[in-house]
Amino acid sequence: MLIYAVCGAGIGTSVLLKANAERALSMLGIGAEVQAVSIADARGTHRMAQVVLATPEIVDQLTGIPAEIIAIKNIFDLAELGEKLKESLG
């Protein structure tokens, strides 16, 4: 399972989202690879993720990607991340 944590440039919010998604997945006992990527990388990659995590502000820029897009309101809220990942992957 591949999950993208996405932000505009792929070096700020996405890195924090990746780290917290990995923590939430670990707490759920779900194994998955999480990569921090930019919007451009998420749209143009040859290896598409099954799930894309992003803040609500950029979700519209990800339309058309053949993956489930999950909007995360608070990237530091492990409960929100865990709940949404469990709903998607569970």
Describe the structure.
This protein is α/β, with parallel strands linked by helices. It has one domain. It has helices at about 15-30, 40-45, 80-90, and strands at about 1-5, 35-40, 50-55, 70. It has a 4-stranded parallel sheet. Strand 1 (about 1-5), helix 1 and strand 2 (about 35-40) form a beta-alpha-beta unit. Helix 1 (about 15-30) crosses helix 3. It is globular and about 30 Å long.
Order of helices and strands: EHEHEEH
Compute the number of strand runs: 4
Please tell me what the overall shape is: globular
The count of domains is: 1
Order of strands, main sheet, comes to 2-1-3-4
pLDDT < 50 runs, ≥5 residues? none
User: If helices are DSSP runs of H or I spanning 4 or more residues, what is the number of helices?
Assistant: 3
β content, as a range? 15-25%
Distance between the termini: 12 Å
Cα-based radius of gyration, to the nearest Å: 11 Å
Structural class: alpha/beta
Q: How many strands, which pairing sense, and closed or not: the largest β-sheet?
A: 4 strands, parallel
Query: Could you tell me the mean pLDDT?
Result: 93
Helix percentage: 25-40%
